[in-house]
Amino acid sequence: MDRLSSAGLAGGMRHQVLVTGATGKSGRRVARRLREEGVAVRAAARGGEHFFDWTDRSTWDAALEGVQAVYIVPLDGTALVRPFVERAVRLGVRRVVLASGRGIDVPGYAKDAGGMLEGLVDGETAVRESGLEWTISRPGWFAQNFSEGFFADAVRAGELRLPGGAGAASFVDAEDIAAVVVAALTGGGHSGQVYELSGPRAVTLDEAAAAISEAAGRDVRYVPLSVEEYVAELVGQGWSPADAAAFADLIEPLREGKDEHVSDGVPRALGRPPRSFAEFAASTAAEGGWAV
Per the structure, how many domains does the chain have? Predict the structure, then answer.
C-alpha cells in the first residue's frame, strides 16, 4: 500500500509525523508545512519542542512512539540510521523519508575526510531494506547556505571569499526540499522513489552574488581564493588546520562543477519546476534575511 489512507495521513486525519532535525534548514520547513496541512507533528531536536538526541538512544523510543511516518535527518559522520530504523519498525512506523546527499553514488564526487559518505550510504541501504514505505531525498547545494548556512555571514559582510573558482551549482531552495518531503510523507506515489533535488539551472558564485546584490539592494561580491589562501584565512580566524582543510574540501565539488547538472526530482515529485536562485534571493530579501 502506497498511501496512509483510511487510517492515515492521506485520508485527512490527524496523525503524528516525527520530524528529526526539526530546527534545521529542511526539518523546520517540513514541520511548518505539515502543520499548515493539519498534520500533527512531533518536532524533535536537541533544542526543539521534543527533546531528541541521536547520540542518546534512550531518547529514541519517546520520539517514535505513536508515529506513523518519520522524516530522518541523519547526524553527520555517524551510522545511526540503521538502528533507528530498526527501532521504528518495531514501534509500528509505516513510512520513512530519508534526507541523504546528492552525488553519494558518484565515485570521486567529493573528498570524505570526515567520514560522512559511509554513514549516508548505510542509511540509504537501511531504509531500502526496512520493509517500510520509503523515499529518499537527495538535495544538492542548498540555496539557503547563503542566508542561514555556510556563507551567510560572508554575504552580510558583503564579500564571499571562497575557493570556488568559476564553478557552478544548481542550488536548490530548501522550500522545494520541504515540499517534496511533505508530499512523500503524506501522499501516494512516492514509495520506493529516490528524488535527486536541484534548482532549474546551474549558478556560479559570481551570479549568486549578483542575484543577492539585486535582491538585497546592496553590493555583495565574490572573491575567488585558492584553497591554500582559504585555509590560511580560516586558521587566522581560529580554526584548526585540520578543520579548515576539511571545510575547504566541502567546496571542491562546487569548484570542479560536479554539481552543475539539473535533476528532475522536484518536477517528478511535485509536478512543477523548482524555484530559481533569483526567486530564492528575492523572497529571502523580502523577509529581511540579509538585514545588517
Answer: 1
